[in-house]
Design brief:
The protein contains eight helices and twelve strands. The chain has 287 residues and is an alpha/beta fold. Strands 6, 7, 8, 11 and 12 form a five-stranded parallel sheet that branches. Strands 1-3-2 form a three-stranded antiparallel sheet. α1 crosses α2. It is globular. The structure holds zinc ion. The site of zinc ion (ZN) has 5 residues, from β6. The site of zinc ion has 5 residues, from β6.
C-alpha cells in the first residue's frame, strides 16, 4: 500500500467540490484504459483510492489548506520479478505461497495466435505474445495484433525478421529491435515492455539496448513444440505439464503452431490441476 498526499490551497470550498467532481468524471472515462501512459496509471490509481479530507476550520471565503490522502490499491504495484539467471518468475513478497508459472507464445501473430489468445481468455489466464515484425506487415495482420492486444495480452518484441542477433552488426540489431518497437506501438498504442531474442541468442549490445529502452529481456525455462516428437496435441500437452523441468516459477515457451494451439486448453488445465497459478505478466517488475 502506498500513500500519496496532495496539498491544495483554495479560496472557496466550491472549488474543492469542483476539483473532486472533475476527478471522478476523469476516472469513469479512463477506468477501462490499459496501462498505456502515466496519465491513465494515475487516474486508475485514483479510481481505486480512498480519499480523505482534512479541513482547517476557517470561515467561508478564507483561505483553507486541504489535505487529500490517497491510499492506492496494490493492483498497480508489481507482484513478481524475473530471475535473470534462469528466467523464472518469483514473487516479490517472499512470504507468498503457491506455485507460479508464466506462459509465453513466440513467433506471433502467424496463424494461430488469435485463437490461442481466445483460449487463454476463456480460461481467464494471460500470456505474453512475442511478435515477429515480418508477421505484422499487412493491414489484416496489424488488425489481428490489435485484437490480441485488446483482449488484454501484453505484446513482446521478438525482432523484425527473427534473425540471430549474433550474426548482425550493431546497426542492424538496433533496427531489428527499435523498428519493431515503433511498429508495435503504432498499432497498439503501447511500447513493448518485454524482449526475447530469436533462439535466445543475445549480444552484449542487444542486452544494453533492451535495458536502455526500459524493456525486460527474457529467455525461457523450457518448451517442446519445435521438437518432432511433440508436434502433436497429446504429446505436447503431456510433456508441457509433466516434464521434470516444471518447477515453481517456470517460464514456459510455446509458439504460434497448430499443435500448440490444439494442446493449449489441456496445458492450462494440467498446470492448474497441479496447483500452479498462471501469472499475469503485466504484474512483473520491469526495471
Ligand atoms: Zn522465435
Amino acid at each position: 500500500m502506498m500513500k500519496k498526499t496532495l496539498f491544495l490551497m483554495i479560496g472557496q470550498s466550491v472549488i474543492l467540490l469542483f476539483f473532486l467532481a472533475s476527478c471522478s468524471t476523469m476516472d469513469s472515462e479512463t477506468s477501462d484504459v490499459k496501462e498505456t501512459s502515466d496519465v491513465s496509471e494515475i487516474t486508475e490509481k485514483e479510481n481505486k483510492s480512498d480519499e480523505k479530507l482534512v479541513e482547517d476550520s476557517t470561515e467561508d471565503g478564507e483561505e483553507q489548506v486541504e489535505e487529500i490522502t490517497i491510499e492506492e490499491e496494490s493492483e498497480e504495484i508489481p507482484l513478481y520479478t524475473l530471475n535473470n539467471t534462469n528466467w523464472t518468475v518469483e514473487p516479490i513478497d517472499k512470504e507468498a505461497e503457491g506455485k507460479l508459472v508464466l506462459l509465453t507464445i513466440d513467433d506471433a501473430p502467424d496463424k494461430f495466435s488469435l485463437e490461442m489468445a481466445k483460449t487463454l481468455k476463456d480460461n481467464k489466464v494471460k500470456a505474453i505474445f512475442f511478435v515477429n515484425g515480418h508477421f505484422i506487415q499487412s493491414e489484416e495482420k496489424k488488425k489481428l495484433l490489435k485484437e490480441i492486444y485488446d483482449l488484454g495480452f501484453p505484446i513482446g518484441n521478438h525482432t523484425m525478421s527473427h534473425s540471430n542477433l549474433k550474426n548482425l552488426s550493431e546497426k542492424d540489431q538496433y533496427k531489428e529491435i527499435i523498428e519493431l518497437n515503433h511498429q508495435i506501438e503504432a498499432i497498439t498504442g503501447e511500447k513493448p515492455k518485454f524482449f526475447r531474442a530469436p533462439f535466445g541468442s543475445n549480444t552484449d549490445y542487444s542486452k544494453k539496448l533492451v535495458a536502455e529502452q526500459g524493456m525486460l529481456l527474457m529467455n525461457w525455462s523450457y518448451g517442446y513444440d519445435w521438437e518432432e516428437d511433440y508436434m502433436n496435441k497429446d504429446a505436447l500437452a503431456d510433456i508441457m505439464v509433466n516434464t521434470p523441468l516444471l518447477t515453481n516459477g517456470s517460464n514456459l515457451l510455446m509458439h504460434d503452431r497448430e499443435w500448440t494451439n490444439k494442446a493449449l486448453p489441456k496445458i492450462i488445465e494440467g498446470l492448474k490441476s497441479k496447483g500452479y497459478t498462471i501469472i499475469d505478466p503485466t504484474k512483473i517488475k520491469i526495471s
